[in-house]
Amino acid sequence: MGDNRSGIYWGWYVVLGAFLILGINYGARYSFGVFVKPMALEYQWSRSVISAGMSILVLAYGIGGIFSGRLVDRIAPRWLITAGSALVAIGLFLTPFVHEPWQFYITYGLFGGFGSACFGAVVCNSSVGKWFIRKRGVAIGAASIGIGVATMVLAPLAGWVVKVYGWRVGFLGLGGIVLAIGVILSQWFMGKTRPEDYGLLPDGGGGMDRGGDAASDGGPRLGPSLGKILRDSRFWILVVCYSIAFMAEMSAMVHQVPHALDRYIDRIAAASSLGMIGLASVLGRFFFGWLSDRIRDAKYAAAIGLFFMATGMMFLLMADTVTLLFCFALLFGFGYGSMAPMIPYLLADRFGRQILGTAYGMLTFFIAVGGSLGPIITGYVYDLSGTYTFAWLLNLTVLLIVTFLILALKPHKPDAEV
After folding, report:
1. pTM of the model
2. Which of 83, 97, 250, 325 is deepest in the core (most CB within 10 A)?
3. The domain 9-193+225-408 is classified under which CATH number: 1.10.3720.10, 3.30.930.10, 1.10.8.420, 1.20.1250.20?
């Protein structure tokens, strides 16, 4: 199974594996919002203290992404994914037994962050991107849909478990899911590196001699060096735009459920708003991946996605009913769905696919720094003002700014890789 003779190009198995693995990774992470208020009530910790756990996770994810990105350019991704799944599961198993914030920061923040970096978007989407050129947008978009599907399922499920059995059982259940599914799927689907190493061509083209020159796909075997990428203004435009977008995204994902509960919206409905974001992001990931393959420059698709996120924030400002909360979730989720396919697509489009893992890992570090600030800043603003209004206004403003900034991204097709 898995070669061209079976009738199915192996790259599509990689897409399926990435779809499922990304799903359990981000589905578990984006369920965090349902744990914030019960932990705050039990331990009498402020929301900024609890939010710092997610901020540490995101920052550790970014640091880990630098190393996992370089490794996925060199080894089969299944070993990274297996190790990462085990580390995240250990952190989730230990979190119910913490009693001090510093313990929570180690179990949930550090274990969760470094572990999830080994089977997150850097590893999975880079692995997918190496198997496709002409169909890259659709392939990465399809793989990224797993994030939305799992969020749609796991967040409401976690909300129900927390309501019925308590937050400790919720963490234990998520740990079991991550360990079982992550290890099995990584060994099954993610054992190969790139098509040229197995006598195949990107997109499922005809076979080639094993070890043949990758230049036969129209691109060079080696992309630009990391140093050259770091001196390129296009890289830093991507850093600024997506660091800010991720800051707003993490801010909303962690605090939208507590915000809804403060507005007297039912807990299950509030948790379901996370699932609604997942549902909308499924459409967004497919749409923006599809659109990127069909327009002159994918930066226009990226700008549309960022604008949808900004529009969603306007509804969150007004969300004091389930209807308005779900309107926010649908618009914001559709726009947020653009991020997973657009980031690796724009990187590969500007810098080439041979160094995609390394470039993606470095970009993810900077994005994670921005993302790590979102939950803790929002929690701090809430602790000072007793409301999320000022945090949502900040998110709206910066999202509108980056919507236009991304349009300044200069085009470039690396060599002949079209």
Report:
1. 0.70
2. 250
3. 1.20.1250.20
